[in-house]
Design goal:
This protein has 1455 residues and is an all-alpha fold. 61% of the residues lie in helices and 2% in strands.
Length: 1455
Amino acid sequence: MMRKKRRSSVDKGEEAATATKSKKSRSAGRQPKEAPSEETNQSVFGVFLREAGVTLKQGGTSNEIAVDQVVFQKRIQKQLKKSPRYPGIVQEFTAGLESHIEDPERFRNCLLPCVPRLSDGDSSCVSSFQESLLRMLLGIEMLQTFIINILLEKLPEYMLDGPADGGLSIPRIIINQLKWLDRVVDSKELATKLMELVSVAPVEVQRDIITSLPEMLDDSQHNDIARELNTLLQENTQLTVPILDALSSLNLSSSLLTEVRGAVMATLAAVQLEDLPVVVKFILHAVSASDAYEVVYNLRKKLELEQCVLLPALQASQSRIKKKGSVVSASTPAAGSSQDSVTLILDGIKSAVRFQKTISEAWLKAIESVDEVEDHKVIDLLVLFILHSTNANQSRRGAERVLKIKVRTGLIQDALLQRTFRDYAQVMRGYFPSILALAQTLLRSPDPCVVPFGGHMYRHAFTAFDSYCQQEVVSSLVTHVCSGVGGEVDMALELLSGLVTEKPSEMSLYAVFVKGILDYMDNLTPQQIRRLFHLLSRLAFGQQQQGSHIQDDMHIVIRKQLSSTVPKYKRIGIIGAVMIVGSMGAFRLKVKESQNGSLPQETFRQVTALLELVKSSSESSPEAAALYYDELANLILISNLDPQVQETIADSVVRDFQDDFVVDVGPEISGSFPFPACVMYNLDEKESQENIAINLLPVLAKDMQNKGEQQSQTKKAHRRVSPLCLSPFFRLLRLCEEKQNEGGLEEIDGLLGCPVILTDMDVVEKMESLSKAEKEFLCTLLFHTINWFREIINAFCRQKETEMKMKVMTRLQNITYLQTLLERALAETPGYVPPVANFDGESTDGTMLSTSAPVNKAKKEGTGKKRKAPAKNSSESSSQLDESTEADKTQQEQPEKEKEKEIRQGVSLVSYRQFFRELDIEVLSVLQCDLISRSLLDSELNTKAVEEVVLGPAELVFLLEDMFRKLEFSLTAAPAKRSPFLKGRTDKSVGFSHLQQKSSKDIASCCVELLPALCSHLENCHNHFQTLLSENNGVVDGPATDVQEHQLMSSAYQLLLQVLNTAFSWSGFSQPGQRNLLKKALGVMAGRLKEGGAELTLEQLVKHSFEYLVNFRSTMPNLSTALCLSQLLSTVSEKGGNPAAYREQTASLAKRFLSQEWVTASGEKERGNKFNEALHTLLSIYLEHVDDVLKAVEEIAGEGIPELLNASKDESSASWPTLSRQTFLVFYKVLLAELEKAARKIPASKNSDSTEVSHQAQSEKLLTWNLAVRDFHILVNLVKVFDSRPVLSVCLKYGRHFLESFLKLGMPLLDNSFKRHKEDVQSLLKTFQLSTRQLHHLCGHSKIHQDMSLTNHVPALKKSLELFVYRVKAMLTLNNCQEAFWIGNLKNRNLKGEEILSQRSQESEDDGEEEEEEERRSPQPEEESEDEAQETDRGESKKGAKEDEVEEDISDDSD
């Protein structure tokens, strides 16, 4: 019975073949019962073998062996050696072998393993597996060379034969005999013969030989054989894989490996796709740390994965052209195999990255080094996913960092991501967890530039992958929505909406996940709730109704929210219900089953029932009713509703509005009101037939009365009409009319000019005499009137008729006039809470009532606890805008009034923005009218006003303020900060509901459309101030100056520049898709200066725009406007490819503004916090853009400040008029900060710098540090004159920063320069020592005054001062001058240099506390070279107390 054999040296296929062969031979020889005949070989060969224990067989039977193979080899060796004919007997033996294997059958037997002979049942002496006869003979060293020659000579005989019967390949078995020999006698000879064979053998045999080379040869031959293989590789690409396999296993020298790798890299482009994985694996195999970057960089450059996928696709398309029938069969396998190859390539990269840290770092570095969008490839993204997924050597963080940087700079874009997902979906699937994790990280990023890319990753993953991945994507997006973080929630909802639109059937499977968000709506803003219900209702009630299984849940939630008495939940219910109406009542395209594509009757019934439910639920609360009207208006604006539904809504709206708010005007108005009623602001002709009016005062009075009668039972009998609903109701009415009449408003144009029932506004002058209730009633009336007019402008701003335009302009004038009245009324009504105007925000919950303090607190600070001034909460922006409000003029007119009166007069409407109705962005089209100032109007005797529509300065400021707020809200990307824990949320989006529904691109486009008008207004402002200056002979505050108009025109000028700056600062312009929009915008400005802007390049457009804007520099009315111009120029210059070209111009312009005296229209010098803030920013701009910062700092500190010291108390510096005693702190802070920044930019010195060029560079760096230290000394010494606490604080803070920079960057330079430039180093340290001593005195001053704001800086500064002492000692030690140095105790002194006596007693205990370095005269060490000169005596090498006196003298002299 045969035993199961274990075989290792022969392929499994051969084993199987042998088994089948033996079976066949057994079955074939079944008739004769005796065993197969033995080979009776009487030669030396046959005899020796028999005696050694091997029986040769004939036919298909394997040779038998009776002993263990080691015993057999020993016996043969012994027989040969003991033979008297030795060594000739060896020749005879091999000749016998040769004649024996002449017969192919016997040769095959000798190549196949021997079979153990099972005689007498004793098999203990023979192992279960034995080698072939030839293999055993090869193990005998004296025979090895002969047998190798015999085998290699036999090999060509079988080379061209196909596999024998049973699949045996004789050449392969011959080669296998030579593998893993215990010892190769003549390795060099073997290598030579094998390579000769390779040169003549067919490809299959070549492959076998080459692959086996590492297992045949010993290490000494590896380098030689590698060179030959390298040559072969260049000649024959068919052998790439076996050669690289062999090379990977050879033990090569590093230089040879590099050479081979270079050769392989050169052939990379010609390699077959299926061979690529092996090639890539070889290239990344055993890379040294020094070569890693270069290897990876070149591999990345040459690896074109795109072609790997394109080629099969191309072949498939060609086969499709040839025969259309077999398209699928041709393309699918090709695509699949290419994906497999890519997977294998990535696996090779993955294993290299995982096991070699240098490779993972090199990949990151290589990807980072790419600086063109076009140069990024699919492989970059795939490698980043690999690095993220393996996390070998913390590469996950590196991958995240690089991806963020690339996305932020716009180098990796959605197009590349899309290509990767489209062509490599199968490959990418393996990295899905990493893709999901990266998408989550990007979506959570506070950087708004990278958030959309995270969104694209989610979208593509959902589209490209299977249902498991889709489920993960949806649940991850739902998690984002439930996080409650603004930007993250918006992006996640937008993605979910997009997926519902693109893939409704797939998304319907996950509707239950999305529905889960309904439990987390507390954290969502109204806009987000709107979007959430929009996508849910699309899923549940859309035309296909794929997600109909959640309809009931939606109804339950809506009814529950609508019936709630908590305003917040009722608000959610109203928004949700209206969104469901939008989806259920949407206009349906014609489908086969439904007739005419109209709404099914049952659906229409459900829609009307839901509308009725919302209406009845919201009637009890005016805020809820107003929100319902606003939401419905919004729905009509953005949705395409079924005509039936639209008609139903419109009919009820027109009827109810007329009933509630429109009355016929009689000769007198009946009823008792707090103020006498009269009809105001009528724009229609007196003889008009239809005298209608808006019934505002009576409705408000009645509403107030109802509020007083809380327990009134008449509520249910008669619907309560609230003035809150007037504006929202009119908006709904107007949109219904527009929708039904395709934009025409003829039906309701009477409302534009119709009067309003109000009271005579003279009552505002007598505010002091009114009661609190009357004051509040009047303020509320004013708010409602202004909001009514704002909605009127929203409605009619797009009308083309001149008469309509005139009326709109008049309404604008009404608003600006009423706002001035409101400001005065509010000043007299502290603690007043206005009526709500935007009903979808948190403000409707009555949170406002918490402030009973006067409103003036908010006016001063720009933010109040209850006032969520939209997008204006930052002190910087509100400070800029406060200046542009009319209220400020009263402050400037009456600066001498007592504080309280001033605050009362200065109530600004900035804090009340949320109580005004939002102006639509279309209203800004009114800016396209011309500007007319009062002086021009007077000179032309009002004639122009009749002929055409013109804007007044107040109206221009009003519109520009609104535009600036809108742009700042939409185009300024605020970082998505997480909401603070347990803090009241200030919702900055209140008052921007309509704006939020437009993308930032739409807003930017709208802005570009208005640019010509904005440029015209800018030029008009410029001309206005130029005329003013020429009339007053260049004096700003001449007698002809109208202070109020000057104030308005200044505000308009500043706002125009701010609007342009905000528009051009939009981050979207950096995206490639918006390039044309940017060119169009710059073209408008360039076109004002030079015609033919269409064909100019971006760089030329930037240049012309810059030149255009610089022309406005001569007419800046105040410093804030000048700053805005500088910022705008800086922003515009960055849009080109070479911002450095404009640095000098920007710096000289900033210097011009700093060297200008700024006075107000009333003739006083500009001053105050806003002026100081603007000055701070402008001075920073100057020093950032100037060529030589150190020289500029010295110019101001060395010339400007001494001039100031010599000037009288209120005078300024002559060369820098903005530098006065009031602004000294601003200058001081900026100078120190910029000096420290400049010091940090001085390049560090390297120890390796020894060439002549580097010595030159060293001298330059030393000179720069000398300048910096000199400037620092001047600035630090100024604290002796300006010793106010803020100045000292600035000196301590930036003094430490400068000292740290010097230690880090300056001291290494001194280490290297000391020998060559000893005098320079010495003088630099002397100067610096004076500064550090002054800082030391400053520390003492802070301690003795125990001023917390100063002492906080002391410990860190002391540490740096002490570090400086030891660092100088280290430098001297390095240059063998350590004996030229000693340390003495430095006494504590105050700013004036007087000793602080109270601490003298502690000196003995505390002697190490204050230390200062001194370089001293001392005998020079003998080993010191000549150029290592000792430090010269400064006359201070005395001991004890005298040291301090002399030191002090020096610092005094230095003043």
